[in-house]
Amino acid sequence: MDSxxxxxxxxxxxxxxxxxxxxxxxxxxxPRPTLVLVALVFGVHLVVAGALRVFAAxxxxxxxxxxxxxxxxxGGLVAAAGLVTLVDPAIPLVVYAVLAGVGFVAxxxxxxxxxxxxxxxxxxxxxxxxxxxxxxxxVAVLAAPGLAxxxxxxxxxxxxxxxxxxxxxxxxxxxxxxx
Length: 179
Fold this sequence. Notes:
Helices cover 88% and strands 0% of the residues.
């Protein structure tokens, strides 16, 4: 690789790592506003994606009517979900948390059944322990979905800071680029 390409790649890595650290610090320092901002951005995306899908359905005269109707209805629902998100970002955030909690509980129950009846290739004790932890995590998320979301954002922020800092620390020194 030529030295200009290496320098360009190095700048890309540094900028990406610094942005990751900055976003991680913001997420850790202000988890709730970070969640709201993410929900709002997601809401805008849903409105635009839904509107484009409806537009494509209306304009798609050469496509099958079943596709046009399906695309139009789905687009309308997606846009409506986006509008709900923009009006009150807490609603979809809580819905996501509740769905995650239900998922944890369902996975835990399925794993518990597998651990009790046994299935090939798995050990019962670790499977049962994992199942019980999954059910407990699901119950915790269902009991306090707002807190669960905040914890998730803080953990994600710490991960961003860690990965960004590690990237910067592991970047070869500039002298190595010149060789």
